[in-house]
């Protein structure tokens, strides 16, 4: 046997090392992508406002009296007295405005807002939101919203037909609210630093704590992390670092998160998602289809002329049964690639794959959680 030249051996070794490093790099993710600092979160804001400028698609004051009351109050603040008048405008709609106030949002920064109709308006297309106060759960006003609405749907109605696409009674205003009040400094009020996993898992929590400890032992000669449960990792900040600098150094560390073996199927769309760690014990699977077609072709039987007979309908039924070829295949999912290759050998459509996975789970050979949506 001829020996491989040295330069080929070196090239093959370098290629294998590069492929190995690439697979590790693809599997590793940053801690900031799978966990967040506990206590640092968004705050929800809500407000009641009016949308004006609609083309006759707004609320009817008779069916939505709150719209008339809000319109009168707004005009009173602008110096217009309409208390004794009956308003019948259809160019105004009452709406609920919601927004998420991100942490550390400064005064004067802009946030996106969502607008949804509250009355019987048929469309908000072309409308403009009048300045609306957005309050938090504590009753304090944190932002003011105003601007032209972006509506993604439309609704057109005639005397005998109506065409609707999307939702015309909901809209969005990108950057439509200005922050007027600062949220109390959440970072300074934290007495205990803790990371919270977005997908709780004991193995992932242990890996995060291990990666943080390996870094802090090397840099600061101390173990700074401890996994308290499958969701929370407690942190101890080095004395010479600020909280923001410590969190920034931790978030850029990379680990390989773990996930449970799970198969998710959606029978409505035929979607099948198989996790990486799904295993299947050795099973033999066959799948065939039986199609029965029944065709009715009745015939008319007429009597001979001058025979005093009756015209009758004679039924004629044709039954055709076709059974598809069922291929027997052995599936042993040592890994995800083997499982997918075994299912592809049978040549099935998504509905057939879903039926087979459910049958394998019933047989006890699917070593994973099967989630049917």
Shape: flat
| Rg (C-alpha, Å) | 33 Å
Determine the structural class based on helices, strands and strand pairing: alpha+beta
> Going across the major beta sheet, what is the strand order?
3-4-5-10-7-6
Report low-confidence residues grouped into runs of 5 or more. 1-5, 7-12, 14-25
Number of domains: 3
Strand content: 35-45%
- Chain oligomer state: single chain
Short structural description:
This protein has 373 residues and is of the alpha+beta class. The protein folds into 3 domains: 43-179, no CATH class; 191-255; 262-372, no CATH class. The protein has helices at 6-27, 31-34, 65-77, 202-220, 243-251, 336-346, 350-362; strands spanning 29-30, 35-37, 43-52, 93-101, 110-117, 128-135, 141-148, 154-157, 162-165, 170-179, 193-197, 225-227, 232-235, 254-255, 262-266, 271-274, 279-287, 290-296, 299-301, 312-314, 317-323, 327-333, 366-367, 369-372.
Mind explaining what this structure looks like?
This protein has helices at 6-27, 31-34, 65-77, 202-220, 243-251, 336-346, 350-362; strands at residues 29-30, 35-37, 43-52, 93-101, 110-117, 128-135, 141-148, 154-157, 162-165, 170-179, 193-197, 225-227, 232-235, 254-255, 262-266, 271-274, 279-287, 290-296, 299-301, 312-314, 317-323, 327-333, 366-367, 369-372. The protein is an alpha+beta fold. The chain has three domains: 43-179, no CATH class; 191-255; 262-372, no CATH class. The strands form eight sheets. The protein has a six-stranded antiparallel β-barrel. Strand 12 (225-227) and strand 13 (232-235) form a beta hairpin. The longest helix has 22 residues, at 6-27.
